[in-house]
Design a protein that fits this description.
alpha+beta, Uridine Diphospho-n-acetylenolpyruvylglucosamine Reductase, domain 2, Cytochrome p450, 2 domains, 5-stranded mixed sheet, 3-stranded antiparallel sheet, 18 helices, 12 strands, Cyt_P450_E_grp-I, metal-binding
Length: 485
């Protein structure tokens, strides 16, 4: 991080001696970030001796995120991130990011998505088969179990037994929960405390199991899952990924496919439960399209309202809510000088609630995304301000995968259930860590009106439902390439 931010950028008000803006950031970071827009396009932020520049204007944020040569993922923040999570495609600096992205991109080609959707369908069926009418579940935890199981099955469908899958998922959960401390408070993270010891043990378990899986895959021959496609990926000079690189990519893909997608589903359910008219309409759409089934790839176009609910949930509560970039050379941004070493922050939460781009930004309104016009029309300003998957050359490779997963899973739930929210406290003050999410979301499972509850079935652990490889590509759906800026 820069020890001296450019003097021409005015600091946000409320700065305390020595502490800077630590107290308002500690008390309510989302509310504090949302106030910065009124103090300029670029606003100085101080946390103790550290200084940042927050980019509040969508045009300038677009400029920062699209110019990776000038505003790169370097500096102590990303050094800590890479120590915790490895140097995968989501954390590496330019030009290593460019090399990795070119190698990984074919694995996310649109022709593979129908096969991945079958993984989603099998794991969603397993989850729903274990729910009982009238019981209260922690929706945040249930969605994490679902999405990490989907990510693991998409990666390791041919070589991961159910017990192995659960062991890896559990280690990953401990690893993920502890990563925030390791990045934000490295000195605290080195203390021999129970949580830190669990984190280190989970990290060792995680890395060993992934290494073993990669070794097994290298000897197994051709398969049709995501790991096999990553193993087959070649760089511009014909080189493949090393085992260490593959391990880092697995961590990135599980974070993106597990934690961020589960947060999206959790926020979507929270918003639906607090807006019963939209919940009712979305449930009717899901029941009409799916009947008694679980959503599949070919039904995505018919789940139009569900898609807009997910899109609006991503606007109001973007899982990736804060991005950092470091100026690698002196630059001018918004007419101001940005010295080398300055750390710039782009907050999707702040940009997504800009009233000049999204009228009544604090109102849940899926209709703002109707294609016929209005604030949600896909104009350049909206595209620059709406960044749930990031932007520029580092935009998430799995955007289509995650979007499809969220819509299919949410519709499958709503076709069977009319959930009732039991407690809003955790959603009203969410955890602002690597991923923005409520720590808990207790929901009571009420069968959707007019639908008879399923006969009780034995609870089947996630992962037991799918033991074969991901089906090969379906040419019927091979029309579109994954967007990669």
């Amino acid at each position: 991080m820069s020890e001296s931010a450019p003097a021409v950028v005015a600091p946000a008000p409320g700065r305390w001696p020595l502490l800077g803006h630590f107290l308002p950031l500690r008390r309510d970071p989302l509310r504090f970030m949302d106030t910065l827009r009124g103090h300029g396009d670029l606003v100085g932020l101080h946390v103790g001796p550290l200084r940042f520049v927050v980019v509040c204007d969508p045009r300038l944020a677009h400029e920062v995120l699209t110019d990776l040569r000038t505003y790169d993922r370097t500096g102590p923040v990303y050094d800590r991130v890479r120590r915790a999570m490895g140097a995968g495609v989501a954390t590496s600096a330019y030009p290593e990011h460019r090399r990795q992205r070119l190698m990984m991109q074919p694995a996310f080609h649109a022709r593979h998505l129908p096969g991945y959707a079958e993984v989603m369908r099998g794991q969603t069926a397993a989850l729903l088969g274990g729910w009982r009418p009238g019981e209260t579940v922690d929706f945040a935890n249930e969605m994490f179990r679902l999405t990490t199981s989907i990510a693991l099955r998409a990666l390791f469908s041919a070589g991961l037994a159910p017990a192995e899958s659960e062991k890896l998922r559990e280690a990953f959960e401990v690893f993920l929960r502890g990563s925030y401390t390791q990045i934000a408070l490295p000195a605290y993270g080195r203390l021999p405390l129970p949580g830190n010891l669990r984190y280190r043990a989970a990290l060792r378990q995680w890395r060993k199991q992934v290494r073993d899986l990669i070794t097994r895959y290298r000897a197994a021959g051709d398969e049709q899952d995501l790991m096999a496609r990553l193993l087959a990926a070649l760089g511009e000079e014909g080189e493949g990924m090393t085992d260490a690189e593959l391990s880092d990519q697995v961590a990135v893909l599980l974070i993106a496919g597990g934690e961020t997608t589960s947060a999206t589903l959790t926020w979507a359910m929270y918003l639906l439960c607090t807006h019963p008219e939209v919940l009712r309409a979305a449930g009717e759409e899901a029941a009409r399209v799916l009947g008694d089934g679980v959503a599949e790839w070919g039904q995505l176009p018919q789940l139009e309202l569900t898609g807009r609910v997910v899109q609006e949930a991503l606007r109001m509560y973007p899982p990736s809510w804060l991005l950092a970039r470091t100026a690698t050379r002196e630059a001018r941004l918004g007419g101001l000088v940005i010295p080398v070493g300055t750390t710039l922050l782009v907050s999707q939460y702040l940009l997504h609630r800009d009233p000049d781009v999204f009228p009544e930004p604090n109102r849940f309104d899926p209709d703002r995304w109707l294609a016929r016009g209005g604030a949600g029309a896909p104009n350049a300003t909206v595209r620059r301000a709406y960044l749930p998957f990031g932007g520029g050359p580092t935009k998430c490779l799995g955007e289509q995968f995650a979007s499809a997963e969220a819509v299919l899973a949410l519709a499958s739930i709503l076709a069977r259930w009319a959930p009732e929210l039991r407690d809003t406290r955790f959603a009203e003050k969410p955890d602002c860590r690597l991923v923005l999410l409520p720590r808990h979301l207790p929901v009571r499972l009420v069968p959707r009106k007019g639908r008879a509850p399923d006969a009780p079935a034995p609870r089947i652990p996630l992962g037991d439902q799918l033991t074969t490889a991901v089906p090969p590509r379906s040419d019927e759906h091979a029309a579109q390439e994954v967007v990669a800026e």
